Amino acid sequence: MDAVTEAFRLIIALDADLFEILWLSIRVSVIALAISAVISLPLGTWLAITEFPGRKFCILLLNALMGMPPVVVGLMVYLLLSRSGPLGWLGLLYTPTAMIIAQVVLITPIIAALSNQVIENLHQEYSDTFYSMGVTGRRAVVAYLVDARYALTTCILAGFGRAIAEVGAVIIVGGNIDHLTRVMTTAIALETSKGNLSLALSLGTVLLALSLLVNSLVIGVREYAAKRQYA
Amino acid sequence: MKPFLVFVVLAFSAHTQADTIIVQSTTSTQNSGLYDYLLPILKKDTGIQANIVAVGTGQAINNARRCDGDLLLVHARSAEETFVADGYGEYRRDLMYNDFVIVGPKADPANVAGARDVTDALQRIRQAGAKFASRGDDSGTHKKERSLWQEAAIDPVAGSGQWYLETGSGMGATLNTGVGLGAYVLTDRATWMSFANKQDSTILFEGAPPLFNQYGVIPVSAAKCPNVNREAAETFARWLLSETGQAAIAAYQVDGKQLFFPNANDRLNSSIELK
Fold it and tell me: Which value does ipTM take for this structure?
C-alpha cells in the first residue's frame, strides 16, 4: 500500500525526472508499436489468407518468436549496432532509436502471430464471399484489416504491453543512461540494485497506472467507435 | 515509411555532438551517486556531456573492446593493464581508491568479525558452512573475490549452489540476495554505504591491506577505434586527474562520509606521463 501512496506522491509532486523517464518510456514504446504495427498487421493477415508452401512453418516460427527472451533481442541488436558491428557507423547504440529498434524486433512477432489468428478465423467466414467478389491480394489484406479492426486492437495492446514492460532488451542497447536512455523499467532495475525497494515498487506502480490509462483509452475509443457504427 | 524512419533517427540521435562521450563504467561509481555529483561540475568546467553506461567492470572492458565507449572507468588493475597492452587503451592512470568490506548478518554465525585477516575470515565462513553470495559476473569485485579465495586456498566453486551462491548479477542485486539469505558478501564500501536495503546485515570485516580497491581511468584508443571521441575523452580524463577533479571526488560524501579517495597525483602514479 505504501508503494501506491508513494506513487501518487511522485505523480502529484510532478517530479521532473520522473516525467522525463515516463515520457521517454511512452515515446519509445509508442513509436516502436507504430512501426511494428505497420509491418506485423499486414504480415499476419497476409499469412492468414494466402496459401503457399511453407506457410504453416512461417506461422509456427512467428508463434515461437513470441517467446523470444528480450535479453536475446537486446544482445542481437547490440551486436548489430555496436561500433565494431555491421551498423556501427550509424552511431545508434545507446540512443532511444536503438531501444525502438529492439522493441520493434521484440513485438513484431507477437502482433503478427496474434493478428494472424484473428484474421484466420475471419477468413473461414469470408473467403467465399471475397473470392466471388474478386477481392484478392493487397485489397483483401486491407479489407480484412478494416473489418477486424476492433479485434485487432487487443493484438496491438498486447504488443504495447510487452514493449512498455520489458527491461532486458532496452537496458543492453540503451545503456540506462540518465537523461538519455533511462526508461521506467531500467529505472526500476537501477533503484532495485541500489536497495531502494520501496521507490522501485512505486515506479512500478506508476508504470502500471500508465498501462491502465493506455488500455482504458484504447478500449474507450473502440467502444465509442463501435457504438457509433451500429447506432 | 522511409521519411518516417529518417525522422525517428534524426529525432533521437544524441550521439553525434562533439562534446558528448560515452563512459563504460563500473556500477559502484553510479550506485553511490558519485556521477550525479561530478557530472554537473564537469559539464560546467569543460562543456562535456558524459553519458554513463554502468555495468560490471568485466562487461565494461568488453564493451570498450568493441569500441562502444570513449572512456573506461573501472576497478580491476590487471585487466585494465591487459586492455592497454592489447592496444585498446591510450594509457591507464590511477584515479581514486576506496576499499572492499565483508558484510553479513549481525549474528555473524562464522564469527568473521573476530578474524585475524582476510584469509582467516574466508576460512571461517567455509568452516562454519555459512552461505556466501558472489557476484559471479567477472566484475572487478568478483575478480578481487576470486583472488582472495585463492589466497585462502579454498575453491568455492566446488560448493556452488550449496553454500557458494553465484548470482551472476550486479553488486546491488547480489547484496539484495545476500541480505535476503543472511549470506556473507564481499562488496566495495561505496556501494554498501549508499545501499538502502541493509536490513539485518552489517560490515563485519574491514581494513585489511588486501581489501584495497583501486579505480583507474583509460581513454579508449583512437587507433583501435577510429570513431571514438578521443578529444572529449581526453578532456574528461584530464579533468578527473586534475586538482579540480580530484578535489571534487574528495568532496563527495554520503551521510557525512567520504566514499572515494583521489590518488591520481600520488608520487608513483603521476610519474606515468600523459600522452
Answer: 0.83
